[in-house]
Amino acid sequence: MDRPPNPQNTGVSTGTTILAVKFNGGVIIGSDSRASIGGSYVSNKMINKLIQVHDKIFCCIAGSLADAQAVTKMAKFQLSFHSIQMEAPPLVKAAASVLKELCYNNREELQAGFITAGWDRKRGPQVYTVSMGGMLISQPFTIGGSGSTFIYGYADAKFKPDMSREECLQFTTNALTLAIGRDNVSGGVVHMVVITEDGVEHVVVPGDKLPKFHDE
Amino acid sequence: MLKCFTDNRFNTHGQRLTVHFDSPNLYGAVPEVSPAKGDPSSAHRPINTTTIMAVEFDGGVVIGADSRTTTGAYIANRVTDKLTKVHERIFCCRSGSAADTQAIAEAVSYQLGFHSIELDEPPLVQTAANLFKQMCYRYREELMAGIIVAGWDKRKGGQVYTVPMGGMLVRQPVSVGGSGSSYIYGFIDSNYKTGMTKEECLRFTADALALAMERDGSSGGVVRLAAITEAGLERSVILGNQLPSFSA
């Protein structure tokens, strides 16, 4: 499996696994916690890839860490300015659009894609993907990063619309654990943020508390 | 021991192709001079970038594959049979270059047949797997072949051996291969349990292959399944419109 033409190989992918899932009443956005250099050195075992761009809007990054930090910093500023002007919290779609504009207008230089998830009063819980070239689409759930290839089958099979909060937490934890199990550049703990109308809750599942599957 | 013949035919470049089974120039695959870079004909050999899978259960094995063979973006065969018999109770699932894997399977099938006659009993799955490995390892630079060998024998029952590109050999209770396999590792890890029955294995294999075919552009068509036990072989096909479907 290391030599045939790989149609998946469209660009540089950070060693990571990220996902966001809509459930009944909110969204969960989750990631692993490993940052690696060249696939052979783990530079950070406990990095938080879930970045808060506004009170109830988070995004997580796939791609170059440097690009992602620059873009999210810019997006955070633009969103807070926008929300002051509008005198209302920004829409999740607005946050995703801001990221999309930055990614698309600088698509030649940048190598970062984003998953944006959050809750707003107009449309409730939403998940948006901004791909590396600057495409923006809304989906019920989405996965990204190098580890995501291994869980497409699992996610397709197990996702159901309108899950409860506990079912969704279980789904996210399982999916990230399976991806960490197969992708050598994803690892560490599982970070999850649960965003609902009532607020934001950060859940961390340490490595030894992750679910175990048959071969462990 | 290997068959050896000369086939005096010419390829599209007007070069003489000399074909021996015991030489690196496998049947129909490699001309004696590599074509110029950018030559369109060099990029489009038929390949089975595919999804193949095999699962052991108590009493036999279940094997499965999709049915797509592509040459570039064209689907050369949408009903391919990638489950190839090498002996009565031993099959292989082929992925990679269609020509390479067909040639290897033919050669191993011949060797196994001969060996079985010498032994005067059916060959072991481990023997078949080792023959595949020897060929894949010896010619690793020339070949593009990922093979899963699975079958039943009297000594160890149902067994699955994987011989990926490069020529490693390892026995596993569940093995997947081909380009579509990346997408179903998570599903396989979470859904496989030891002690499954034949029917559970068939359903597990069909589900996994359907999920892979949905996500991998190079896998598709129908799902071909086979169950190999002491009693014999049962082949089945799941057509496109009968494939298990998932909500996403």
UniProtKB/TrEMBL annotation, chain A:
Q: GO:BP terms for this protein?
A: proteolysis involved in protein catabolic process
Q: Which Pfam families match?
A: Proteasome
GO cellular component terms?
A: cytoplasm; nucleus; proteasome core complex, beta-subunit complex
Sorted keywords for this record are: Cytoplasm, Hydrolase, Nucleus, Protease, Proteasome, Threonine protease
- Active site: residue positions: 16 (nucleophile)
Q: Give the function comment from the record.
A: Component of the proteasome, a multicatalytic proteinase complex which is characterized by its ability to cleave peptides with Arg, Phe, Tyr, Leu, and Glu adjacent to the leaving group at neutral or slightly basic pH. The proteasome has an ATP-dependent proteolytic activity.
Protein name (database record): Proteasome subunit beta
From TrEMBL, chain B:
Q: Which keywords fit this entry according to its UniProt record? A: Cytoplasm, Hydrolase, Immunity, Nucleus, Protease, Proteasome, Threonine protease, Zymogen
Catalytic center residues = 50 (nucleophile)
Question: Where does the record say this protein resides?
Answer: Cytoplasm; Nucleus
**The keyword Cytoplasm appears for this protein:** yes
- Superkingdom of the source? Eukaryota
Which reaction does this chain catalyze? Cleavage of peptide bonds with very broad specificity
Any one GO molecular function term: threonine-type endopeptidase activity
User: Is Transmembrane helix there in the keyword field?
Assistant: no
Role this protein plays: The proteasome is a multicatalytic proteinase complex which is characterized by its ability to cleave peptides with Arg, Phe, Tyr, Leu, and Glu adjacent to the leaving group at neutral or slightly basic pH. The proteasome has an ATP-dependent proteolytic activity. This subunit is involved in antigen processing to generate class I binding peptides. Component of the proteasome, a multicatalytic proteinase complex which is characterized by its ability to cleave peptides with Arg, Phe, Tyr, Leu, and Glu adjacent to the leaving group at neutral or slightly basic pH. The proteasome has an ATP-dependent proteolytic activity.
Q: What does the similarity note say?
A: Belongs to the peptidase T1B family.
Q: What is this protein called?
A: Proteasome subunit beta
